[in-house]
Write a structure and sequence with these properties.
By secondary structure, the protein is α/β, with parallel strands linked by helices. The protein has 8 helices and 13 strands. The longest helix has 12 residues. It is globular, with a radius of gyration of 19 Å.
Length: 260
């Protein structure tokens, strides 16, 4: 039951070229940076990544992206990652963009053993009808487009069929974890991390604080250890290394926009 491994390198040693990874995080919040860097150091490539976005500010998955190690991204947000957008438009990267809620449910469904589900999100758009550019040819043309999906009507409303997602590995970051793999996520870091952990056939969690079994109140567990196979305790320095993607301040003497 003790799932703690000696290092991040050991925890991802069996990640091979062409592997698929479900990676937690949203922007720079809750990103398993130590594990991502370990994958980078391992030198593997041709990776298929499922994540909300693909890193930001040269952090997280942006490290693998800039090195040309990622072949395909399934996500919901390109955002301010200019290198992501450049590689996509240049035909260097295949990208499946899907609605954010659908992405979350596809990960959860895969982890719960549900092969597919119907949702109204995307009905009447290219999400359902097909034709979204998955890969460009580098000259502005579309080399690979999304196929149409099954649409059915239930109680007078149309729904599109979406498939659950399973990946070879899940990489996540938690605030606390015990040796059995039970995890607690801090505030906004509880974003895609539980879902990415569920979707991975082998899930590795880097934890900021490792505790002994029984120290976490069962009512406080956000993700049970059944979904986690390996635990990597972070050093205090690694745990404290958290960047802010966008820093904003209010003008002196004000409480911010919309305050009264």
């Amino acid at each position: 039951m003790d799932k703690v491994v000696g290092s991040a390198a050991e925890a991802v040693a069996d990640v091979r070229d062409g592997a698929s990874l479900a990676v937690g995080g949203f922007g720079l919040s809750g990103v398993p940076e130590v594990l991502v860097h370990a994958v980078y150091e391992a030198g593997v490539g041709g990776l298929g990544v499922v994540s909300n976005n693909c890193g930001a500010m040269d952090r997280g998955l942006a490290v693998l992206l800039a090195a040309g190690r990622i072949a395909r991204v399934t996500g919901s947000y390109i955002g301010a990652n200019k290198e992501f957008a450049r590689r996509y438009l240049a035909g260097e990267l295949e990208v499946e963009l899907i609605p954010q809620g659908t992405l979350a449910e596809r990960l959860r469904a895969g982890g719960a053993g549900i092969p597919a589900f119907y949702t109204p999100a995307g009905v009447g758009t290219q999400v359902a009808d097909g034709g979204l550019p998955w890969r460009y040819d580098g000259t502005g043309g579309v080399a690979v487009a999304s196929p149409p999906k099954e649409v059915r009507e239930f109680d007078g409303r149309r729904y599109v069929l979406e498939r659950g997602i399973r990946t070879d590995f899940g990489l996540v970051r938690a605030a606390r974890g015990d040796r059995h793999g039970n995890l607690v996520f801090a505030k906004s870091a509880r974003n895609f991390n539980p879902l990415a952990a569920m979707a991975g056939r082998i899930t590795v969690a880097e934890v900021e604080q490792l505790v002994e079994p029984g120290e976490i109140d069962p009512d406080q567990v956000h993700l049970p250890g059944i979904f986690v196979q390996r635990i990597v305790p972070l050093t205090p320095e690694q745990a404290a290394d958290k960047q802010i993607e966008r820093r904003t301040v209010a003008a002196p003497g004000t409480r911010g926009r919309g305050s009264r």
